[in-house]
Design a protein that fits this description.
Distance between the termini: 60 Å
CATH topology of the domain at 598-814: OB fold (Dihydrolipoamide Acetyltransferase, E2P)
Oligomer: single chain
Helix content: 25-40%
Number of helices: 35
Shape: globular
CATH class of the domain at 598-814: Mainly Beta
Length: 1084
């Protein structure tokens, strides 16, 4: 608005002298604007004309804390109330006021109470102004607990759903009072007609720029008198009202500001300066000096640097002559000036055009520019989070979830499934999506498509077919603390607490801790179970986990106290699949019978490929074949009986399978049920099949005694190559097809390396008459689908145990599984305790135990790469998919990168808050590659001998005249964890030049290119990007070495620096998106 007024004023004084401009506002400072638009008449400045139109609202009485001494009894210290914060005492004053309104209503109306209650039949509504969602939640909890006061409490905040917002307009139930807890959204955007009382905390959260980081921050501050008067007016719409300001009158007079600080003085100036450059009205510094509230010179200088950092203004190759208050507008800058999105999102659109993914980038930019269309309903946050995770799939990206949800909505509309508004609303409710907001995103998406078309950027209607990518699903263990003594008695309660997360397979109780393990579908491919993310999310949302328990003394007093007390420190394992509660085996070297192997060399038949390197099979040696034949024969002689219970996941039964036109029944586990059919997993062979529910039969208990014969295998010391990972999934479709062709349905010789969680880690060999034994891992590495990797710690530990076991006799191995008499005694006492608990001999539980957690040892934390934020805490907003990050491979020391679409800082500047995040693929060296590729300027670090690169400093460079960094707070120092060569730096420069060809002005610029040439350049840029991230030979791993002078520029001998320049830049043209990096020559 300030910039618009500035341009209007300038045009009125130049080429539009006779145009009349009318400014209208209910809260405008008339004199200030009249003086600003003053015109010279006879050597004198005459202010603009002012007209005032009086309104006729109902009267609203104002009250301050001075008038409420009968409520707070002078307990409030005026000194403490000068800070913009809400104390507990102030909350109590607000609650007391709400309760006091009943007396005021009866006194004013003169009516008696209604239906024997202490309330009148029509109780006036109350509007409470609070600064943010946290304060609303706190007040909401207090008021909803006052059940006997008959209050209907509604939150009103920009994040709540539109349906919830509409509730504030509904009439309350007779005898109930409606309480609306609102931010300043009800100040002007929403008008609730039946409000009689306004309680104003006189606080607001204002968007400001942090002085150190230039990140935007919502800071708690006092609202202006203008805003408070707006709030007061909410009570005078249909009747006489009352406004209660919870501050002292003298503080209102002396300290509350009259007006809010102008936007130009507290918000980023980037878009304003780009508009100045586009209008060609002169140097930004000179034009902005004529604004109503001109920004400081330092703010303008800093904004120029930030625009150069993003690429909207060109970085001069001759740094000595660079103007700190101006710069040359690049092609990117011209595009950004025309787009109604911020600079980072505008740059995303341009880079999307360069790399041929414009449509996805447009959807992301439109979605991030408006209110998030994903719904996180009040008190249903976990369900909303689960839905968002479902949309993102395995990408671990909020932006990918936005694209998938938007396209799902588009597809349903195109099919005609959402033709009726009710159908569309139902679809949105089912998928936790706000239809009104996603429509707004669609409108902005179309607007952005129209605007970029003037720059010769068009969406390719022929979408490329994406490979189906696969990931591996692995179990993780969750830990809970503060479990009460004899916690195994309450295992059913604990199971029910996690039912909304997933199916619990087992719980191990160990003193005051419990370890929860979720069931894993043996044929699914996720690395980390979704149930684990849901459980950690519960902890993050502070979902209360309470158990109804008996005290330890009560248990020991009623049930064989001496024997029972020994169980206090015993590890107890509850297996829900086997329906057993037993003392847990403590020794790591004791292997479960189902994991027992008689030899480290096994001959197997592969029956089911889950993903690359992960498959199921069964042993085909003579002894194993005899066991399977005998089992099949015994089942065939059975008289089959239908299932006595309804089929459900994890149920073990008998299921038919046809082999060579002969159908037989085998032991099977139900994976899932859908309609009249189920998918079953044959536990002795490792394959799966779809069968009808009515053919599933009950399995006699004696057939469950024999361990399942199928084994789950994983090829050890192998991970996906960078080429597989770069698309954001685990293995590419091509890699999956190649692996299946190698092993599916074939006999393999496997050498056992370890056994971890029932999965046998092996080296797998193919038999070839010409080449002998061929290692499958070597084939995948040679063909570029995989690369060598470290085994996890658990696998290495298991390997050592197996080596020790198989160096002894087989009898020793067998003896290890024999239970000890001590364990039998403990098992007996556990059974006695459980029987006493289930038969209610202990009585009803009379205590509550609050559990802490759950926790996961592999949960990751993030830190910032920029200098100014390096030692600040980093928090990811709770709505983000990556608010919970769990490491899939903790043994891998390579750095990982998390990218945020937007960020802000808290009021103190100590914490950076990330929004709409994406966890980048686990490609070795990726953080360094991305930083070098997109940094405006970089300086490579070399070792003392000058033989290799050790790291890089990225930023805006340094000033040769002063020797100082240009923008030091945004500099990034990285130490390499893989070896980069001179060829890598040259490839980066070639790719930067390729990007410039699609993002530049001039006769050879992208505006003058035809569709075929644009497609050719996009394909070239994509191939070079893929080649950079996925070299034919994996980069060598190195130990990171930090530079001895971090964040200091000009640390390289100038004799070793080699300029890199393409033809255009060598002819003096600087207005490129990316200048080519200087190369440092290495010693041989």
């Amino acid at each position: 608005m300030d910039f618009l007024l500035l341009v209007v004023r300038k045009l009125l004084r130049t080429n539009s002298r006779f145009v009349k401009v009318v400014l209208m506002s209910a809260t405008i400072n008339c004199k200030e604007f009249a003086d600003y638009f003053a015109v010279p008449v006879q050597n004198k400045m005459n202010p603009a004309y002012m007209f005032e139109v009086e309104g006729k609202p109902y009267s609203v009485e104002e009250y301050y804390l001075n008038d409420l001494e009968h409520i707070h009894h002078n307990r409030l210290s005026p000194h403490l109330l000068e800070e913009p914060v809400i104390t507990k005492d102030i909350y109590e004053v607000a609650v007391s006021l709400i309760q006091m309104f009943d007396g005021l209503d009866m006194k004013e109306s003169g009516t008696k109470t209604w239906s024997g209650t202490p309330f009148v039949s029509e109780r006036s509504s109350v509007l409470v102004f609070l600064p943010g969602l946290g304060e609303i939640n706190y007040m909401h909890e207090i008021l909803t607990n006052m059940v006997h006061k008959r209050l209907q409490v509604y939150p009103l905040h920009s994040s709540v759903t539109l349906e919830e917002q509409n509730n504030v307009f509904l009439s309350p139930v007779p005898g109930y009072r409606k309480i609306i807890l609102s931010t300043n959204i009800a100040e002007s955007s929403v008008t609730v007609p039946d409000v009689k009382y306004v309680i104003d905390f006189c606080l607001t959260r204002t968007l400001v720029c942090d002085e150190d980081t230039n990140y935007q921050s919502l800071r708690l501050s006092w609202a202006s008198k203008t805003s408070c008067d707006q709030r007061k007016g909410r009570a005078g719409r249909v009747s006489k009202g009352c406004c209660y300001r919870l501050i002292y009158k003298d503080f209102w007079d002396s300290s509350i500001p009259d007006h809010v600080i102008p936007e130009m003085l507290r918000c980023p100036l980037g878009s304003t300066i780009l508009k100045v450059k586009l209008l060609d009205m002169g140097e930004p510094r000179a034009l902005l000096a004529t604004a109503l509230s001109p920004p400081s010179l330092s703010d303008i200088e800093r904004t120029i640097l930030l625009l150069k950092e993003v690429g909207a203004l060109a970085v001069s190759r001759q740094r000595e002559d660079e103007n700190p208050h101006d710069g040359e507008l690049t092609f990117l800058g011209r595009v950004l000036a025309q787009l109604p999105v911020n600079q980072q999102l505008g740059k995303l659109i341009v880079l999307g055009h360069v790399f041929g993914c414009l449509d996805e980038c447009l959807i992301i930019a439109a979605s991030l520019s408006l209110k998030n269309f994903f719904v996180m309903p009040f008190r249903q946050h976990l369900d909303g989070y689960r839905n968002k995770v479902d949309f993102c799939g395995n990408s671990k990206s909020d932006c990918a979830a936005l694209v998938e949800a938007f396209r799902a909505w588009q597809t349903c509309r195109q099919r005609g499934e959402l033709r009726h508004p009710k159908d569309e609303l139902d679809w949105g409710r089912l998928n936790y999506i706000q239809i009104k907001r996603i429509r707004e995103v669609a409108e902005l998406y179309e607007e952005l498509k129209t605007r970029i078309s003037q720059f010769n950027m068009y969406v390719d209607s022929r979408r490329p077919v994406m490979d189906q990518e696969y990931t591996y699903k692995q179990r993780f263990i969750l830990q809970l603390k503060h479990v009460p003594p004899y916690g195994f008695l309450y295992y059913k309660q604990l199971q029910s607490l996690f039912r909304q997360c997933g199916q619990v397979r087992s719980i191990v109780f160990d003193g005051a801790k419990a370890f929860v393990e979720f069931s894993r579908n043996p044929t699914e491919r996720f690395k980390t179970l979704p149930a684990v993310y849901m459980a950690i999310k519960m902890s993050q949302l502070k979902v209360s986990l309470k158990l109804s328990v008996h005290s330890a003394e009560e248990i020991e007093g009623k049930v064989q106290g001496g024997a029972v007390s020994k169980l206090r420190n015993t590890r107890v394992n509850v297996d829900f699949q086997k329906q057993t509660v037993d003392p847990a085996q403590v020794s790591f070297s004791t292997l479960d019978r189902s994991q027992m192997i008689t030899d480290l060399l096994l001959t197997i038949d592969v029956t089911e490929v889950v993903e690359v390197g992960h498959f199921w099979g069964y042993r085909i040696d003579e002894k194993s074949s005899e066991i399977l034949e005998k089992l099949t024969a015994e089942i065939s002689r059975l008289k089959l009986v239908p299932l006595p219970v309804h089929p459900h996941p994890d149920l073990v039964c008998l299921a038919p399978f046809a082999d060579f036109d002969k159908e037989s029944y085998f032991r099977a586990q139900i994976l899932y049920v859908s309609g009249n059919s189920a998918e079953v997993f044959f536990v002795d062979y490792g394959n799966r099949a779809h069968v009808a529910l009515d053919v599933l039969m009950e399995i006699p208990s004696q057939f469950l005694e024999l361990p399942f014969q199928a084994l789950e295998f994983k090829i050890c010391k192998m991970r996906p190559s960078a080429r597989c990972l770069v698309c954001g999934e685990h293995w590419s479709g091509r890699a999956s097809r190649r692996f299946s062709s190698l092993v599916s349905g074939r006999a393999l010789l496997v050498k056992v390396f370890s056994v971890v969680h029932g999965v046998v880690h092996v080296d797998a060999y193919l038999s070839s008459a010409l080449q002998g034994a061929i290692n499958v891992r070597d084939v995948l590495v040679k063909e570029g689908y995989a690369e060598l990797a470290e085994e996890p710690y658990e696998s290495k530990q298991s390997h050592e145990v197996l080596k020790g076991l198989f160096s002894k006799s087989v009898e020793y191995v067998t003896d290890m599984s024999v239970p000890s008499p001590l364990k039998d005694d403990e098992k007996y006492v556990i059974r006695i305790l459980l029987e006493s608990f289930s038969s209610n001999k202990l009585g009803n539980p009379n205590c509550k135990a609050i559990l802490h957690g759950p926790f996961n040892p592999y949960e990751l934390k993030c830190h910032s790469l920029t200098r100014i934020s390096k030692f600040r805490c980093v928090w990811i907003e709770k709505e983000s998919i990556n608010s919970v990050i769990i490491s899939d491979s903790p043994e891998d020391f390579h750095q990982r990168m998390l990218v945020a679409a937007s960020l802000s800082v808290n009021a103190t500047g100590s914490t950076v808050l990330l929004r709409e995040t994406s966890l980048m693929p686990h490609v070795p060296g990726l953080p360094a590659l991305l930083s070098m590729l997109f940094a405006p300027v970089m300086e490579l670090r070399v070792d003392r001998d000058g033989r290799c690169y050790t790291g890089v400093l990225c930023g805006l460079g340094w000033n040769p005249t002063t020797g100082a960094p240009v923008l030091p707070e945004h500099d990034m120092e990285l130490a390499f964890d893989v070896q980069f060569s001179v060829e890598d730096v040259i490839e980066i420069n070639i790719l930067r030049a390729a990007i410039n060809k699609l993002a530049c002005d001039g006769p050879n610029g992208s505006m003058c290119l035809g569709p075929e040439r644009i497609t050719q350049l996009q394909d070239n840029a994509r191939q070079k990007l893929l080649g950079l991230f996925c070299p034919l030979k994996p980069r060598e791993k190195i130990v990171p070495k930090w530079h001895e002078k971090p964040y200091e520029w000009n640390q390289v001998d100038l004799k070793l620096v080699m300029e890199q320049a393409d033809g255009e830049s060598s002819r003096g043209k600087n207005a490129f998106l990316y200048q080519l990096h200087k190369l440092i020559v290495l010693s041989s």
